[in-house]
Amino acid sequence: MAATDRARWRSAANWLNLATPCGLLLARATGCRVRSGPRGLYLALGYRLDLPDAAAFTVGNVVLWREGLDEPERCPGLIVHEERHASQYAWCLGLPFLPLYAVAAGYSWLRTGDPASRNVFERQAGLAAGGYTQRRSRPIGALLPPLRRWSRPRG
Fold first, then answer.
1. Is residue 25 part of a domain?
2. pTM of the predicted model as reported, rounded to 2 decimal places
3. Enclosing H/E stretch for 114
4. What distance in Å separates the CA atoms of residue 87 and residue 13, rounded to the nearest whole number?
5. Of 104, 98, 58, which is closest to residue 80 (Cα–Cα)?
6. Is residue 24 part of a domain?
7. Among candidates 44, 37, 120, which has minimal Cα distance to 83?
8. Are strands 62-66 and 42-47 parallel, antiparallel or unpaired?
9. Which tens digits make up the pLDDT trace of 71-114?
10. How buried is residue 40: exposed, middle or buried, by Cβ count under 10 Å (0-12/13-18/19+)?
11. Nearest one of 52, 54, 60 to 34, comparing CA atoms
């Protein structure tokens, strides 16, 4: 399948699963300026809320850019990273991507102290392109003592 066919498929899927309309609604509600971007993406400029703590993030085919990053074309690697997240929305049938991403981020945080390093979605999108550095995983044994404390019978 050619890149343009994949972009069309992703765009149609994210419209049908309502992820892109939700992304456009979020962009409008937060006062972003929306314009067309490459390969069926929409670039929403001027996102000002504190969450998530990222230079850019994606909802459907809408990439919301932090205030002050008004020239996304100067960050082609980050555009590709966010485009991969748009594809992940399509494969996850839209908004179910969000709780799946939260679980993956929680797992990564437990294993590394960082929500991206072991997050399957961030790894597939490209850690470095997203501005993340890979942290080493903590041994599973290091996670067990607190779990043992919680599971001990009290009495």
1. yes
2. 0.87
3. none
4. 9
5. 58
6. yes
7. 37
8. parallel
9. 888 899 999 999 999 999 999 999 999 999 999 999 999 999 99
10. buried
11. 60
Strand partners, 64: 44, 57
**CB contact at 8 A, 127 and 78:** no
Whether the CA torsion 115, 16, 40, 30 is positive or negative: it is: negative
User: Which pair of tokens denotes residue 131?
Assistant: 């501005």
Does 56 reside within a domain? yes
Would you say how long the chain is, in residues?
Answer: 155
Structural tokens at position 102: 């939260």
Range of the domain at 49: 3-146
Structure token digits, residue 58: 């994606």
Whether 69 maps to a domain, the answer reads yes
Number of domains in the chain: 1
What is the end-to-end Cα distance of the chain in Å, rounded? Answer: 63
